[in-house]
Every structure is written in structure tokens, then in C-alpha cells.
Amino acid sequence: MTGSIKSSRIRAVLVALVILASGIGLLNLSGCLEIIDKLESYLEAAHELWKFNGSILIAWKGRLVINKSYGMANEIIGLPNTSQTKFFIGSITKQFTATAIMILKERQLIDLDRSIDAYLPDFNHEYADRITSHHLLTHSSGLPNYTDRMEFYLKRMDPFNPDELLETIQNERLIFEPGIGFHYSNTGYILLGAIIERISGQSYEAFLHKEIFKPLNMTNTGYGRREAGHPNRADGYTLDESGQLDAAVPIEFSFLHSAGALYSTVEDMLKWDNFLRTGGILKPASIQEMISPQVAGYGYGWFIDYRFGYVHTYHDGLIDGYNSIISRWPGVGLLIVIFSNDDMAPVNKMASGLAGICFTREVDFPVKKEPFDLDKKRYADYPGAYRGDEGFYLIVDYLDDELVAGPVNQPKHRIIPQGPDTFFFEIDNTRLLVFDNHDKNEINTVEEIDGERTLTFHRLPEEEARHILIDRSRIEIDNLLLDRFTGRYRLESAVASTENDFELEVSRAEGKILARLSDSRAIELYPNSSRSFFHENADLLLTFRTDSLGRATGCLLRIGLTEYVGRRID
User: Fold this and answer.
1) Which has more pLDDT, 500 or 420?
2) Three-class HEC string of 389-457
3) What is the rounded CA–CA span in Å between residue 293 and residue 302?
4) What's the mean pLDDT in 422-444?
């Protein structure tokens, strides 16, 4: 553990005096040291029990209260995280994109209520004359989210040209009419980046550097480039099913561009907070417009709610290897920034817990738990597919003699017995799964309990679950049989007639096949039948259709709940 600026009793007293002088009334002088001790104890427990790695900064009205770092920026060379470590911040980028748009608005170069075809004449979407920049800023345009599309997601490791995206989405149907709903869409913020570049005549990167980062002296904030050195950069990690850190996929940041390609430090985010509190590159009215709820509790690059009795503005950012959050209470001047180079770090829960301590509320601390000695014969009772009341799916599976759980098409993580029908997640032991058999001979429901949030999931009947669960019982297949599947396949959606612009290339390795989608990296798939192949831990199953000679003529690719039909083209 390291901390470039360590808490001290002198600084704590000064902070308390400042808070008292401001009239906030959230802390008192006698309780301030106790609260800071609680903050530090909470962080130590999160590091020890949740394996948190990263940097945390807490400030009151621009004055530091906590500035600590934990774990390694680079595990291989033993480089520790510090307050100057640069983390990629994902969707926190959106508030900088929104600020750039507001700068153009103040200069009367853009009208937020004017349709985007006025600024992007080459964007020929049939709704371009009805979608406005306001719609894009508030996720109310109805545009789908491009990062949900498999062919884009699998290309996230390769150089990406936003113009390619604009060409691709021009013929996509809207989810709803512009302005009548909310759907979080990275596509909208990619369009905002294109508008910034078209109006300013500069690249998105250059405009932000000149108009935002340089004036605010944010010298450690910029646009991510995988090929660049980025001194003091944190390498990204993810937790595997056994709870061990592993290097994350090396994402190409141009894939996220104006929706999520920036990096920063916690100390630069304090400079950002000072701007939002005091102004500078924008007028106070423009800042207030950004952090006021516009559609479904979303402003311009900010979520807004009411928490602990005050207006709360925040945004998180999650990409491969990194998880981050900036959480602000503008009315009282509280800032909490958490950057982690572990994409499974519970940053939202930590930010809420730290804020609760600051507001003198009762908070559940990370605690050490000893596993319950559950007979492993009982493990067979729990695996299955469960559907939540809100439409989400939870998969519980048996992998390597352990139980794992997680949403469809997302990493599954080990769950550990806390009681006969209660399990906690290894990566966050305050998050529980409680199974209920309703006095019958099999499990019917499971509740996921995470603090004050409880989600209920109902077990799917076997026939329905068969379309979601994957049999990972590996069998052996002769290499000559595997050769019959090698080749190229053109994929299209199983529920729409529109053909996608990506191909599946299948080659053979010893006892398995290698599948490559478009220009993405090949993945290993193992046989569970003579014609079906699965991924070891992802929700991916590839099944081939064959002719009378046993040669593959097509395939069905299932990723999560989405199916793609492939026809052989070689």
C-alpha cells in the first residue's frame, strides 16, 4: 500500500475547522478524527477483504481529506499505485465530451435543440433530421448502443475509425422515437465527438487538450493510446473465476473515442471538481445545466439522484481492466473519486460506503467470513438459469468443483457457502445469494442481496433453461472429424433478415477448434458433442449443421441470449 499524501491529525483538525466555518454541519470537531479513522479503516478492509487495488481521493470543498492508493499499477515489475497513477476512466469521459459541447454552445456554434443533420450532413440516418444534440447528451435519441453489438465488441482490441461506426449505424432502426424515452447509448456520445470535430475543425483529442485540460492544468489527463507509453499508467487486470488477478484484454481506446477513451488521475479529478464548483472554462449556468436532471435522472454526462438528504451527481466508468467512479454532492462540497485497475472492483459500493461515513450514517464494513462446511453433494441443487423480475438473467454453474454465478454473457465468479442455502461472492463478500426451495425438493428462487438492494430470480424450467445454459462436459473428437468444420461462415441475426458485416473463420487445433470473428483474436472452443463446441467460461456455444457426408454447411452461434445463423461461404 502507498499513499502520496498521508492523512495526519493536523490536517484532520484543519479540515474540521474548515467544515465548521462553512456551516455544513455534517461533521463536528470532536467527531472529525473519528470519521477520518473510519474512512481509513473502511479502505483498509476493502483492500484486505475485497482485494481492492487503485487510488481513492476524498475532498471537502477542494480540500483533501483522504488521498490513498493500494496495490500495484503493474504486477510484473512491482510498480505500486499512487495518486499520480493514470487510470483509464471509461464512461466518465462523457462529462468531458458534454463540457466540450457546452463550450461550443456558449460560443454560439451549436444549438442543442437543432437536429444533428445540420452539423453532420454526411450522417444519412432517416431520423437525423429529428435527433438533436440534447437527445444525444441525455441518451434520449433512441439510438441503439453500438458496444452491445457482438461484431463491434469483438473488435475492441483493434484500431477503430469512428467514421466506420457512423456508416454502420446509419441504417439501424431506433429503439424509440427521439425524445420519448431513455436508453444508455455510447453511440450518441460517439456522434457528439464527431460534432465537436466537425464544428471545431480539430480532433476530439486536440480540442479537449486545448479547451479543457490545459486551462484547468489537468496535466495528467488525456486520450488513451495503447501504443503510447503513458508514464505512470496502471495496467488493467480482471479477476478470473478463482478470484486471481489476470491481465485484462488490451483494449484499443479509439474503439470508445468520445464515449470512453480518456485517462486521468485522482488528483486531476480534484482539479476537475474545483472547476465544477467555481467555474472557469464555462459559465455557472452552463455547469448547472450539465448537472441538472434532464431525462430519467440523467443530465449531460452525469447521473443525478438524491442521496443522504442532498442532490448527488455521479458517473462510473467500466472497461476491460478498469473500474472507476466520481461521486459529488455539489450542495455540500463532498467529492469522492475511486479509480481501480481491477475491472471487478466494487467501486460503486465503496463510494456509497465512504459517503455514508462522511454523512455519519451507519455503514456495513467489509468483514471477514469463514466458509460454511456445506456437503458438496448439495452443490448439484443450485446450478441453473434464473430469470429476474426486472428481466435480467442469473446463471449459477458448477465449474472446477466449485459453484460460480453471474449474469448471462458476463464473467462468472466463485460463490462460497455462508449457510445451507446462502452464499457470498468471493470478490465481494457482502453480496449474497439466498436460495429458497419453498419446502419442495428443488430450488425455485434465489435472491441477490447487495446492501439495500434485493433482486429476486426465478428458476427457469429445464426446457427453457436449455437455451441459456451450456453443457461444459468435454469429449474427445478425432481430428479428421474436426477438419469437416473448418472454413468461413457469413453470420446474420437469427431474428432478423439483415445480414451483418462480419464473418466466422473456423480452424482446427489438437482436439478443439479455433474460432475467429472478423478481425478479432481466435478463441478456443471444446467439443461437448460431435457437432457442438463451447467456450471454457464464456456463455458461447457454436453448433454446426452438416450434410449427408458429415461436412459442415452452416452453423448456429449463441452468445448469451443472442443467436446468429451462419452459412458456409468457402
Assistant:
1) 420
2) CCCCEEEEEEECCEEEEEECCCCCEEEEEEECCEEEECCEEEEEEEEECCCCCCCCEEEEEECCEEEEE
3) 8
4) 85
Enumerate residues 6+ apart whose C-beta is below 8 A from 393. Answer: 385, 386, 387, 407, 408, 457, 468, 561
C-alpha–C-alpha distance, residues 449 and 490, integer Å: 42
In this predicted model, what pLDDT tens digit does every residue of 120-155 receive, in sequence order?
998 878 889 999 999 999 999 999 988 877 666 666
Q: Are 566 and 515 spatial neighbours (Cβ–Cβ below 8 Å)?
A: no
Structure-block grid coordinates of residue 510: 489438437
Counting beta carbons within 10 angstroms of the beta carbon of residue 553, is it exposed (0 to 12), middle (13 to 18) or buried (19 or more)?
Answer: middle
- Whole-angstrom distance, CA of residue 336 vs CA of residue 65: 10
122's grid cell: 454526411
pLDDT exceeds cutoff 90 at 85: yes
Q: Can you give the C-alpha Rg of the chain in angstroms?
A: 25
Beta-carbon contacts of 50 under 8 Å, excluding residues fewer than 6 positions away, are: 345, 346, 350, 366, 427, 428, 429
* H/E element, 350: helix 347-358
Ramachandran area for residue 386 (φ above 0: left; ψ -120 to 50: alpha; else beta): beta
Instruction: Give the residue among 308, 277, 313 at the shortest CA–CA distance from 298.
Output: 313
Integer CA distances (angstroms), 404 to 241, 396, 428, in order:
7, 6, 13
C-alpha cell at 52: 481492492
* Short-list 359, 307, 330, CA closest to 28: 359
Strand ranges (DSSP E) for 75-220? 79-80, 87-88
The CB-side HSE value for 569 (13 A sphere, CA atoms) comes to: 13
**Record: fold of 376-465:** Lipocalin (2.40.128)
- Cα–Cα distances in angstroms (integers) from residue 425 to residues 94, 342, 366, 388, 565, in the given order: 31, 16, 12, 18, 36
Q: Report which residue type is found at 303.
A: F
Domain 87-267+277-325: top CATH class: alpha beta
Judge if 376-465 and 479-568 fold alike in CATH terms.
yes
User: Which residues make Cβ contacts (< 8 Å) with residue 473, sequence separation at least 6?
Assistant: 528
- For residue 160, name the pLDDT band (cuts at 50, 70, 90): confident
Provide the whole-model pTM. 0.83
206: left (phi over 0), alpha (psi -120 to 50) or beta: alpha
CA-nearest of 502, 509, 544, 504 to 525 is 509
Q: What does the pLDDT look like over 504-562, one tens digit per residue?
A: 999 999 999 999 887 667 889 999 999 999 988 778 899 999 998 889 999 999 888 78
pLDDT of residue 30: 43
Mean pLDDT computed over 256-262: 94
Burial class (CB in 10 A: 0-12, 13-18, 19+), 452: exposed
User: How many residues appear in the chain?
Assistant: 570
More confident call, 12 vs 175 = 175
Class of domain 479-568 as given by CATH? mainly beta
